[in-house]
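Entry 14: structure prediction run for Dihydrolipoyl dehydrogenase family protein. Input pasted below.
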Amino acid sequence: MTETESIAYDVVVLGAGPVGENVADRARAAGLSAAIVENELVGGECSYWACMPSKALLRPAIARADARRVPGLSGAVQGPLDAPAVLAHRDYYTSYWKDDGQVAWLDGIGADLHRGHGRLAGPRRVSVEGPDGELRFLTARHAVAVCTGTRALLPGLPGLAEVKPWTSREATSAHEVPDRLIVVGGGVVAVEMATAWQALGSRVTVLVRGHALLPRMEPFAGELVADALKEAGADVRTGTAVTGVTREGSTVVALTDTGDRIEADEILFATGRVPHTEDIGLDTVGLEPGSWLDVDDSLRVTGSEWLYAVGDVNHRALLTHQGKYQARIAGAAIAARAAGVPLLETDLWGAHAATADHAAAPQVVFTDPEAAAVGLSLAEAESAGLRVRAVDVDMSSVAGAGLYADGYRGKARMVVDINREIVVGLTLVGPGVGELIHSATVAVVGEVPVSRLWHAVPSYPTVSEVWLRLLEAYRDM
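Run finished. Output tokens:
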């Protein structure tokens, strides 16, 4: 291994996913020099193994389901999906797992890309081990930002490695449709991949250790998604833990604590994420390797003056859009501190505070039906000590919903802080609701009084008229 001299930058970023790219972009926009270090593909998990490929797989499934609920069209879309075409479209949206375009984007903003494994090597110092074995050092005048994200968590089952299970990466990049697929888990990755592969022709069995799907959302969200998966042909078993796995020839066998033996061609474990921090030199700056990184609202690591942790790695909100939001906040904070501008800790909704992580992080689950939520669930609001009232509306009561889909099924819940008379949370489940959640996000972030929301008139007849139904239900309680 050869060593080169150290190169100095204002900001050094570990990880060139969407979060790292945005930190580098904000640093460059502020006139700071920036280096970004990546040992895989520039664009990260979201571009190649998560957001983009998963939504490319799901879109045909959702479009077909929507079409089947439209009179006059339903009869034209009764056949199976063209799986090879769907997979080819997925490949297109991952740029065929090549990062030339994203590298060109980095060049365009003037950030230097260093290929290789980046590790902290003491305060404000990063070592990069290149693919050719060359070792170079980067120093940061103002900040190092850890944007290394997460990786799939696999359970410690004996023999699991020999089974070669799918994680989210294999589930979004597979090039053949398995005849039978076991999905272990009940969270977002589990239900989205169960939806996609069931629609593409797999016989899917979902095994959930807990008693509900989507346990972090309002209970009705998981219930409606589970019902739809069952109607589509999936076998959904809650209260079922996998106790062992083996591969017998080309067949995977899963054993459960309920005494079942389930056979499949592939098995996907979607059982959680862990921080990608086990080999990035955290010990050289007094931090525990493999740990989540605790940060303040400017995304600076607790106790440090120069180290930032942005995106999934800080465990605040494991969502790409929230990570990019954090990157904009971190970039602004780094630039302000570099210029000697004091940050006002009391400015909760200012340019240097990621307040939305606590109060208004939106999420869409792209199943059929879609589930979308922002802010606090009823249980979360009550646990936080807020005096709240929840109102529920059956989405079928909305005229626009009936036009959107014959026999529209869905539910909405609005959580109102009755002391301040503002909406602190909204959950929607139903076809197409993902496009409605931003209006709720604006209401929650803006702390718009319920009295003012009465004057935000939804267009008729659209599904967004659910807002009127929710406000009427709240008024009439």
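Notes: The CA atoms of residues 382 and 449 lie 20 Å apart. Will compare against the previous run tomorrow.
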